[in-house]
Design brief:
This protein is an alpha/beta fold. The protein contains five helices and five strands, in the order βααβαβαββα. It has helices spanning 26-29, 34-47, 60-70, 89-98, 136-156; strands at residues 8-14, 50-56, 76-80, 102-106, 128-131.
Length: 157
């Protein structure tokens, strides 16, 4: 990451089972792999003068550690918490604690799925949520986060 040349630094976090994208339930999550999503995010970030640090973990504690670490270097967080969306108060508290702007993304429209997926512990501490657009949810989320950071910067001027 060439932080000296980049306007914004963003942590991109992928939660549990997202390492199986392209293979796992392609009728729900699509055929695009996590590597392809990361590549598309990297291309968008380069266009917007942003640097990304990308991590995926199936372990809640590793995601929390990455969020805590981000308070030292990042301007914002883009997160797909996966199933932890619906279960993790600890992940929600970590995002709240670091006080970085955060956008929550989901590949599928969670509100068209099973009722247990309708509640998010993350949403109350996120700037917004983008869901249901497949891999595009990530790029839409990154654009929204970078736009919000630009607006915050402009309002301080």
């Amino acid at each position: 990451m060439s932080e000296a040349l980049d306007k914004w630094r963003v942590l991109v976090l992928h939660g549990p089972n997202l390492n199986l994208l392209g293979l796992r339930e392609p009728n729900v999550y699509g055929r695009v792999t996590l590597e392809e999503i990361n590549q598309r995010l990297g291309e968008l970030a380069a266009q917007r003068q942003a640097a990304l640090r990308i991590a995926q973990s199936n372990h809640e504690g590793a995601l929390i550690d990455a969020i805590h670490d981000a308070r030292e270097w990042a301007h914002g967080i883009l997160i797909n918490p996966g199933a932890y969306t619906h279960t993790s108060v600890a992940l929600r508290d970590a995002i709240s604690a670091v006080a970085l702007p955060c956008v929550e993304v989901h590949l599928s429209n969670v509100h068209r799925r099973e009722p247990f997926r309708h509640h998010s512990f993350i949403t109350p501490v996120a700037l917004g949520v983008i869901a249901g657009f497949g891999w595009r949810s990530y790029t839409l989320g990154l654009m929204a986060l970078l736009d919000a950071l630009d607006e915050q910067c402009a309002s301080r001027s």
